[in-house]
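Hi support team,

I've been running sequence recovery on a batch of backbones for a student project. Most finish fine, but this one hangs at about 90% for roughly twenty minutes before it completes. I'm not sure whether the input is malformed or the queue is just slow. I've pasted the structure tokens below so you can try to reproduce it. Let me know if you need the job ID as well.

Thanks,
M.K.
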């Protein structure tokens, strides 16, 4: 029998709400202890210059095994 890791990261998927992700965590037996957000950038060329334009964010929860 394999045991679950004590900590695990959960990413909020594209078509998922934060509540859905937290429900998924609790079903797997984890409690959220940290939330991080990272911006997602898209490169666009404007006036012959490459610019990084923010186009979203990635939300990640770190879960601790109950």
């Amino acid at each position: 029998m394999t045991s679950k890791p004590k900590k695990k990261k959960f990413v909020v998927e594209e078509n998922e709400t934060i509540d859905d992700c937290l429900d998924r965590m609790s079903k797997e037996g984890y409690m959220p202890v940290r939330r991080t957000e990272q911006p997602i950038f898209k490169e666009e060329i404007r006036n012959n210059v490459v610019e990084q334009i923010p186009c979203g964010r990635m939300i990640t929860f770190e879960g601790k095994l109950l």
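--
Follow-up from support: It reproduced on our side and the slowdown came from queue contention, not your input. The mean pLDDT is 94. No action needed from you.
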